[in-house]
């Protein structure tokens, strides 16, 4: 479920091209929603945007044993907008019936009547519904069982599908035929929630009976003890929070290990420390984009005492040495650690005067 995005960041000076991996970071210093947002924007990209169930799993994995509620980047924008349940779909076609939608200032869902016209409805109403392309068939599947809009959405998603998106007169006709002229839910819903980073992501992962829009509950937290589901809560309450954004940067400049260390400490935080398999995976992914055969990491060898250590940090439990490398071997002095840019991407000891690309950690978690 681990997913890594790559962005190309063009900068000037010593760092002509840097490649950044993006991820979730749980911050366990409690802050109000606004202070959490300021923190994330300063140290990462923004508060976390969650695009799909895979992101939910990824975010849960970042939480380890945290059982609290943590802010994500969803907030009440006061403007009620219609969205398709399927992600990343623009509302570029509508077929509302006369007087529709009613645009009441409360959650709403759209249904199609027996003539193919849409109307706004209370999402708790029980109706049959259309799932889209179940089994990759591309058609529509009518589910005759009457469910609330949200339960209908869950039903379709359990079939690895979603409620139908209707984006042209032709598909509206096809959906009407599939509905056998019953009134059915389609995948359109209305809410006032917006993402802090401006993303149009329409994914929602509410706990049952949430959001309940109680006074001042204008910010959203993920509840780790409840499968990461969401609740709208008062924004002023100090909570843990989840940022999303870069934390590792590949510097495509060939420097010695000491130069690389001082570059990272001056411009970012430090040469990367690989203390978990998760970080190793990220390092391996971005090291593939390097212009040198190995990439410096923050691993240092002391020939005096014959052991390896992470520069300025206690040695971690995680290790990934290439065969014949690491503690069982005696190195000369001035040897430091690098990761192979390709192949098994394991760690090797190299003379610290070699000039290689390197990976900085961009900020402290
Ligand atoms: Ca609530």
TrEMBL record:
Keywords, in A-Z order: Disulfide bond, Signal
Signal sequence coordinates: 1-20
Domain called C-type lectin: residue spans: 24-132, 140-244, 243-361
Keyword Disulfide bond (UniProt): yes
CDD domains associated with the record: CLECT
Superkingdom of source: Eukaryota
Keyword Signal attached: yes
SUPFAM superfamilies, sorted: C-type lectin-like
One Pfam family from the record: Lectin_C
PROSITE patterns membership: C_TYPE_LECTIN_1 (PS00615), C_TYPE_LECTIN_2 (PS50041)
Stated name of the protein: C-type lectin domain-containing protein
Organism the protein comes from: Takifugu bimaculatus
Origin organism lineage: Eukaryota, Metazoa, Chordata, Craniata, Vertebrata
């Amino acid at each position: 479920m681990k997913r890594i995005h790559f962005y190309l960041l063009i900068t000037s000076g010593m760092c002509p091209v840097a490649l950044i991996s993006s991820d979730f970071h749980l911050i366990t210093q409690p802050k109000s929603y606004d202070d959490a947002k300021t923190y994330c924007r300063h140290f990462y990209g923004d508060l976390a945007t969650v695009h799909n169930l895979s992101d939910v799993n990824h975010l849960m994995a970042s939480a380890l044993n945290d059982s609290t509620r943590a802010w994500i980047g969803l907030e009440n924008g006061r403007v009620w907008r219609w969205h398709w349940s399927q992600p990343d779909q623009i509302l570029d076609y509508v077929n509302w019936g006369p007087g529709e939608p009613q645009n009441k200032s409360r959650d709403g869902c759209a249904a199609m009547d027996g003539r193919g016209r849409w109307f706004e409805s209370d999402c708790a109403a029980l109706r049959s519904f259309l799932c889209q392309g179940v089994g990759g068939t591309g058609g529509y599947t009518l589910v005759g069982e009457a469910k609330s809009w949200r339960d209908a959405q869950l039903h379709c998603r359990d079939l690895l599908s979603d409620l139908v998106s209707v984006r042209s007169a032709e598909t509206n006709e096809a959906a009407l035929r599939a509905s056998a002229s019953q009134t059915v839910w389609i995948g359109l819903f209305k809410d006032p929630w917006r993402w802090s980073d401006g993303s149009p992501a329409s994914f929602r992962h509410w706990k049952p009976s949430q959001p309940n829009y109680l006074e001042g509950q204008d910010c959203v937290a993920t509840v780790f003890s409840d499968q990461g589901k969401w609740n709208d809560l008062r924004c002023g309450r100090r909570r843990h929070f989840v940022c999303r954004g870069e934390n590792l940067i590949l510097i495509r400049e060939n420097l010695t290990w000491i130069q690389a260390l001082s570059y990272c400490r001056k411009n970012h935080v430090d040469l990367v420390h690989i203390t978990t398999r998760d970080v190793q995976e990220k390092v391996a992914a971005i090291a593939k984009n390097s212009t040198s055969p190995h990439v410096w990491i923050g691993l240092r060898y002391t020939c005096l005492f014959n052991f390896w250590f992470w520069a300025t940090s206690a040695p971690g439990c995680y290790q990934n040495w290439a065969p014949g490398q690491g503690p069982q071997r005696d190195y000369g002095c001035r040897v430091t650690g690098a990761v192979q840019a390709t192949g098994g991407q394991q760690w090797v000891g190299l003379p610290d005067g070699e000039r290689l690309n390197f990976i900085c950690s961009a900020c402290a978690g």
